Amino acid sequence: MTERTRPEARAAVYTRHGGSDVIEIVGRDSGDPGPGEVRVRIIRSGVNPTDWKARQGSGSGPGEPVEPAQVPNQDGAGVVEAVGQGVDAAWRGVRVWIWEAAYGRPDGTAQEFAVVPASHVVALPDRASFDLGASLGVPFLTAHRCLTVAEFGPSRLGPGALAGKTILVAGGAGAVGNAAIQLARWSDGTVITTVSGPEKAQLAARAGADHLLNYREQDVEAEVRAIAPHGVDMVVEVAASNAALDVALLAEHGTVACYAATGDEQLQLPVRSLMAKNARWQFVLVYGVTGRPKTHALEDVAAAVLDGRVGVGQEHGVPLHHFTLEQTAQAHDAVEQGAVGKVLIDVG
Q: Residue 320 pairs with which residues in a beta bridge?
């Protein structure tokens, strides 16, 4: 596409770190894809906690300049509109979901057209909605990693991969918790999940959890022991503060995969107790997962979508919250304030 026919585009950008008020909507050249890149017409942009945290910044604090201007949001879905050198022309017109668009790059998905590496787009089946596509990246790839780090667990997910395994998912109504439940059930694992109340229990049930425990009203340790007398094989953990409970519930050779933190909190573990179980504690940050584990995650999540075994929306335990591109700041605020479900920006 020539300079004259290349479309102009609206984009949400920020040029300094700070609160959501640093985000502004601008018009800019949509850009041509370079070698190994594609340009995607964005339909939906997904917002994750790391998006507002990246915008807020962790360096010198609010007001720290960002150069070049940053378009936020890692996840998205849309249609490939143009391809760069070395990319198969067959990708033009293909519906795709995007992962880690803005990791180490200025072009996130909160814009009408995003130029991203071709390796960062995955085909989205016609029957899968753009809402689902924009919800897959960070939550589902994180959940996949959490479910595949156990010493005697699978490195791939799919039907039968977790058969005979019991998985405890802390916070089953959260985005990663929901994804972990859906992927574990697709893989035939038995899923126990903890929630804070009846409404979230309903969401976790729709995701497919086998056992629901209200940690505010029930003795979680006793209830889990009744379900799994020998302990759980895996814990997908959202809070390091649950460490003592996780230690008590782990089976021999069990693994805790912790994927979230509120800050740089400290963690104390009873060494002898965990040593006796040959247990494993794994910390997970999806952006640092590379090589074969990342490739496996992308392929397995794509397979689950193709099988029709994962979804979003109220019926899958993921309420959707839609915002316009002009409301990108409000969308970031909604995630920061703990909106239950998935926050999406309707770009196209």
A: 342
Type of residue numbered 46 = G
Cis amide leading into 154 (omega within 30): no
Percent of the chain with pLDDT over 90: 92
β-pair type (95-98, 121-123) = antiparallel
Give dist(CA 63, CA 15) in Å, integer.
9
Among residues 298, 335, 263, 301, the alpha carbon closest in space to that of 48 is found at 335
Please give the Cα distance from 141 to 286 (Å, whole number). Answer: 7
Q: Enumerate residues 6+ apart whose C-beta is below 8 A from 279.
A: 247, 250, 252, 253, 254, 255, 256
Residue 3 has pLDDT above 60, yes or no: no
Backbone phi, psi, residue 133, to 5°: -55, -40
Q: For the chain, how big is the Rg over CA atoms in Å?
A: 20
Q: Identify which of 183, 197, 92, 105 has the alpha carbon closest to the alpha carbon of residue 144.
A: 183
Q: What is the mean pLDDT of residues 108-137?
A: 98
Residue range 32-57: average pLDDT? 97
With bands split at pLDDT 50, 70 and 90, how would you rate the model's confidence at 17? very high
> 2 CB contacts (<8 Å, ≥6 apart)?
none
The residues near 63 (Cβ < 8 Å, ≥ 6 apart) are 16, 17, 18
**Residue 72: both structure tokens together:** 């936020």
pLDDT digits (tens, 9 = 90+) for 204-262: 999 999 999 999 999 999 999 999 999 999 999 999 999 999 999 999 999 999 999 87
Distance CA 276, CA 34 (A): 54
196 touches 214 (CB < 8 A):
yes
Instruction: Report how far residue 195's alpha carbon sits from residue 200's, in angstroms, rounded to the nearest whole number.
Output: 6
Q: What string of H, E and C letters represents the secondary structure of 75-119?
A: EEEEEEEEECCCCCHHHCCCEEEECCCCCCCCECCCECEEEEEHH
